[in-house]
Structure formats: C-alpha cells, structure tokens
Amino acid sequence: MLIQLLANGIVMGSVYALVAMGFGLIYSTTGIFHFAHGIIYTLGAYLLYLLFINLKISILSSLLLSLAGAASLGIMVELLIYSPLRRKEAAPAVYIISSLGVYIFLQNLIALIFGNETKVIFPGVSKTYHFGSIILTQIQVFEVVAFAILFSIFCIFLMKTRFGKALRGLSNNALLAEVVGIDVRKIRIIAFGAGSLLAGVGAVLVSLDVGIDPNMGISMFLLAAVAVIVGGVKTFTGAVLGGLFLGVIQNLVIWKASARWQTLVTFFILIMFLLFKPEGIMGKKRRLEEV
Amino acid sequence: MNYLLHILIMINIYLVLAFSLNLLIGYTGLLSICHAAFYGIGAYISTLLMINLGMNFFLALLLSILGAMLISLLVSLPSLRLKGDYFILCTIGFQLIVFTILYNWISLTRGPYGISGIPTPSLFGFEFSTIPRYFLLTLIMGIISFIIIRRILISPFGRLLKAIREDELATQSLGKDIFKVKILSFLIAAGIAAISGSLFAHYVTYIDPTSFTLEESIFIATIIIVGGMGNLKGPFVGTVLLFIIPELLRFLGIPDAVAANLRQMIYALLLIAFMYFRPQGIAGEYKFK
Q1: Nearest-by-Cβ selection for A274 from B90, B92, B100
Q2: ipTM for the complex?
Q3: Domain containing residue B152
Q4: CA closest to A218 among chain B residues
Q5: What's the whole-model pTM score?
Q6: Does the distance separating the beta carbons of B269 and A101 come in below 8 Å?
C-alpha cells in the first residue's frame, strides 16, 4: 500500500515537476510571477480536446499542435502584456495583477466556449502494467517517462547550449547579461516559449489521464509555484525536486488522512518553507530580507 | 424598489469590505489576496454562534470581529516577514487553507451543503426582517465602519501607514516598529471584513464556502485596484462601478449563464487595462512600487 502510494506520488510529482520546471524557468529568468502560466496549462489541454475530439485530427498531430499552441500562447503573453509593461518600467505588483487578469479572462473565455463541466478525452479503463507490487496505468507510465526525457533535455539545454548559458546568466544578473551583449529580449521569448511548452506537456498528459475542466489551471499553477519555492527559485532543478516532493507528500496525506486536506498541507508546507528555509531545498542560504 | 434596495445592500456590504482592504493595499502597500477568507470567517462565526448558541446578532457580530482579528494573526505573523511575490503567495495560501477548512470541516460548517435558515438580526425587539429594514442596518453599519476607518486614517497611525507604504526603511529609521504597525493594520482590516461577512450571512440567510473563494478575494482586490488606491474615494468608485456592470449586462438581456463569465472577463480586462494605462485606478493617488 505504502509503496503503491509512493509510486502514485512520483507519477503526480512528475507532472507537477514538468509544470514547475516551466514556471521556474520563466520566474527565474524574467522575475515575473507568471500567474497566466496556469491558463496556458488549461489552454494546452483544451486545444487537445478541440483538435482531437471536435475536429477529429489524429492523436499525434493533435498532441503536437496543442504543445505548439501552448508555447506560442506563452510567447504572446510576453509580447502583448509583459513587454509593454517593461517599457513603462512597471512595478512587480503590476505584472502579477496583469498576469492574474490574463488568467481570469482566458479561464472565463474557455468556460464560455466549452462549458464548466469536466470533459474526458479517453473514456474507459486504460491498460495497466505491473511492476512487482506496483500497478500503474499506461498513461501514468507515459507521465513519468515524458518527465524523465524532458528533464534530461532541459538539463542538457541549460548546461551545454549557448541559450542555456544565456538563460542562466539572465537569471543571475539581468543587467549584467544585457551589458555583456546577451540579447535579453530573445532569451525572454525563449524562456516563455520553453516554459509554456513544459506546461503544455503536463496539461496534455493530465487531460489524457483524468480529463479537463476550466479550473484545472489554477490549482496546478499554485502547486507549481509552491514546488519552485520549496525546491529553490534560482536553481532550475529545484523545481523538479519540489514537484516530486509535493507529489509524494500529497499521496502520504491521502494515506494518513484524506485527499480533501491536500491543499491545506501543501500551503502549510509553503508557509513553513518561506519562514524557515526561504531559499528552498536546493538553494544557497540567504537571509530572509534578501528574498 | 426592493430590487434597487437589494443592490444597495450588496453595495453597502462590499463598501465595508473595500474600505477595509484599502487599508492594506492602498495605505500600507500590502497586496493581500485573502480578504474573502476574513469575510467568510466573519460570516461563519456569527452564523454558528447565533444558530448553535442562540446568541443575539450584535453580540455574535462582536465575537466574529474578534475571531477574525485573532485568526488574522495566523496569516499576518508569517506573511508580513515576506516581501513582494512571496507575501502575495502566502496570502493566497491562507485564503485556500481557510476555504479548505470551511469546505471540509463538515461537522462544524456543514461543508459544501452550507448552512441555511440563518436567523435575521433584531435589536430590542425590532426585527431587521424586511429588505428596507435590512438596508437600514447595512447603511448604519457601513457608516459606522466608514467613520472608524476615516478616524484611523486621519490619525497619526494612518500617516504612519502611508509612511511605511512610501518608504519602509526611512520609517524604520525614525524608530517606528513597522512590523507591529503592519500587524495592527491587518488586525483592523480583518475585523472590519468580518462585519461584512456577518451582514452578508444574515441577509441571504444561507451560506456555503463557495461565497468565500480565491476568486472572491481577487474580486475584492479588483474593486480597490480599479476604483483607486490610497484614499477614501477609490473604494467607493470601484464598488459602485463593479456592481453596475452586472446590472448593465442584465439590462442588455444577456442570459445569466453567459453573463457570469462575461462579467468576470470584463473585470479581468479592466484589471489589465488599468495596470497599463492608469495603475493608480480611477480615483486613486497611490501606484504600486
């Protein structure tokens, strides 16, 4: 029982980690608390529904188009909302509120078009695999595999490529990055594109697994944000650790209490981390005043 | 006539909420997204006291104010040590924790089933049972809250709040305990929000947790952000504007199912547009820094 729950935790955590990697990438390179990340996640899932169910396009092309859609939407938010604010040198709170506005606007647009109810993309029971005493469904296996592959690509991209180095440079010191001739505009667009792509991957996997509803993005976004902070903001890989950690904790809550108390435990953990270890699991020690 | 009074009652209730949140967002410069939690705490405490203990409304109201103030310490003590995004996320977290508790502590709050048959308030045998009478009650409570808030804001304490908003370090260097001042402003804001909560609960006579969600907190913050931060006109303008919009939609004959989403979309567009063109809101004098 415990082993099965831990496995479920890793599966859930893989999806959290994917979305959190995306949010962490955007947050650490641009400093924007990108609330709209949540709606890009929701939109990725609804694009899949629109293409695969309504327009009856093959599953593979639907998946690829949904991911491309999610990535371009993320870039559009940067170009249409954040970039003009940056030119006006807006305060950080202004970015958050605008981002929240984008989230609310698109969530209600989706609810208006598709309705508020939960929709399922693949009805019925899917194939299961047995690993010793652990049982996983096919899509759950996909979730873990997709996470493992994307995490590896992400690490190579960050550590080995020029863009990756520029991204890390931007996250370290935005002004200095600009001074040494890094095209920060382009790097920001890459961060938004790649980050939104990761949210899209998480979204299509979850929508194939449990279905979609217009509210799915907010809870996922908040989980991702908590995962990033718990893992360590400027560390990139911290988000992954945070995501897996939350996935496992949530399943332990199911085991010891009930799924109803998951939100409470998640945010309790957040507050504890903010107070006692604000740099996160992976982060370097800093004083609270600097955070 | 009753329709108009109903809208005025709701405006009164939200004015009290908006004025109290303005104390945090507009005066102290704390973008708190958990006001619906205090609103809900007020509603639930006074409801439970009246239903379970048969307490008089005004005593229950007083206790709900004290309860909300006490609970506000649970959020203000940790969150006020944080800044910027982390502070906002912390208040969102508190909002979600309160909602989860209201939703899941079924033996106390009846969870998603809600509490119905909430008694109407009465004072010395005078029942506030009709809509005009209830309007009178909300008007009086609104005026009392307004006078209290105005009194606070024109006092030295109010100027201290503004000083913290403008420059924390400078205020600190004058020997002011800014942490204590922020906690106090949180206490006051939470207590006044609880008044709105009780007024709402005993007006609609049925409450469930879905009235006190994160979306509701965002809505209350929208009132301040659109109406204007940092003075007494802003919340007034914001509340009236944001309550007229849905009535206009109704007037245009848009079906209710569509209107709910459309209303939210309009609010969201207002948020985005104001952040770009006029970050201090319609009548405000403070911009985010």
Answers
A1: B90
A2: 0.88
A3: 2-211
A4: B214
A5: 0.90
A6: yes
